[in-house]
Design a protein that fits this description.
Helix content is 4%, strand content 43%. By secondary structure, it is mainly beta. The radius of gyration is 22 Å and the shape is elongated.
Length: 336
């Protein structure tokens, strides 16, 4: 459904994804979906015997001995903001997980009692790097997870605040307070959310125009350097643009760029270089793109329709849609 906002139409429609799981791992994934991102119910597997004989255990930063409950993790990613549409995190994605004492530790004044870096396997199961395994005692814990939605190590945090963040990165976050650990082997379901924002353009030809290809496209982006709060996953929105635009990912007649959240009434600047009308010389368009309601919110993927006429570019509509994944070069993957 479209609603009018000034000269632009805002779409309130959302698209839901359906993901299929197979084999035994599908049971864990389905259970994770049912339990949600933060549930006091655990998936408990009691295999008996010694569960702490291999790998590196989780321990507090002061060197105290680890407990004997093995804690594993299964990760999914929300595909659209404020819905329960999820899919398993891609195989090979790196996730860093932090554990704090529930109800007592404060991320901005206390170091985590355990933390580990994991790599996603098939269907979202996480395996600790270098044999790492997290062991915790019985009790309640606050868990947090961060990722850049690729195989790179996530940003570091100092007392609950990340290092300076950059545009062009799909930052993911999850948090769960007072999760109860009460079994020898427990799997905690993680539902990661997008903490950055995203702008996408679908380029269409106007009357009398033949579009052949997009040679290049750039967009103004927020000033980098914002940080993430580990407790909330919030990245402080920028209020100004960076001095240099960023190159957008291209797939056919569609464009995408992931950026830090933004709050401003000033429009973005989009520069398009198009091969069109069988002209050997590319046509260059520079146009101002409105920011919907003065904000590009974290977790939202904004889909603009851009119509190219002989001398102008117009934006008949913009809506919030499923998050657009990208390939290793940053180009968008379609369909969703």
């Amino acid at each position: 459904m479209l609603r009018e906002s000034g000269k632009h139409l805002i779409s309130d429609s959302h698209t839901m994804k359906t993901t299929r799981f197979t084999g035994m791992l599908s049971l864990l994934a389905a259970a994770a979906l049912l339990l949600g991102g933060c549930s006091k119910t655990t998936i408990t597997i009691d295999e008996g015997g010694n569960t702490s004989s291999q790998g590196s255990s989780g321990s507090s930063d002061d060197g105290t001995a680890a407990a004997d409950n093995l804690v594993g993790f299964h990760a999914t990613v929300e595909s659209i903001n404020m819905t329960r549409s999820m899919s398993p995190i891609a195989e090979g994605t790196v996730v860093r997980i932090f554990a704090y004492h529930g109800g007592t530790d404060e991320t901005h004044s206390t170091s985590p009692m355990a933390r580990g870096t994991y790599t996603a396997q098939q269907a979202g199961m996480l395996t600790g790097q270098s044999g790492y395994k997290m062991y915790l005692s019985n009790g309640t814990f606050d868990f947090y997870a961060v990722s850049t939605n690729n195989d790179l190590v996530p940003p570091t945090f100092q007392m609950g605040t990340s290092v300076a963040l950059s545009n062009g990165v799909d930052y993911l976050w999850w948090g769960c307070a007072d999760y109860e650990i009460d079994g020898s082997q427990v799997t905690v379901p993680i539902v990661l959310n997008h903490s950055a924002t995203q702008v996408c353009f679908e380029i269409q030809a106007g009357t009398g125009v033949v579009l052949q290809s997009i040679a290049s496209a750039t967009i103004t982006v927020p000033q980098p350097g914002a940080s993430m709060d580990l407790t909330t996953g919030i990245i402080t929105p920028a209020t100004e643009y960076a001095t240099q635009p960023a190159a957008m990912g291209i797939n056919g007649m569609k464009l995408q760029y992931t950026m830090l959240p933004l709050q401003t009434t000033s429009p973005m600047t989009l520069t398009l270089t198009l091969n069109m009308n069988y002209d050997p010389t590319p046509h260059v368009y520079t146009v101002q793109v409105p920011v919907p309601d003065g904000e590009l919110q974290a977790g939202n993927s904004y889909q603009y329709l851009a119509v190219i006429d002989a001398n102008t570019v117009t934006f008949p509509s913009v809506g919030v849609t499923d998050w657009v994944d990208v390939d290793e070069t940053g180009n968008p993957l379609y369909p969703h």
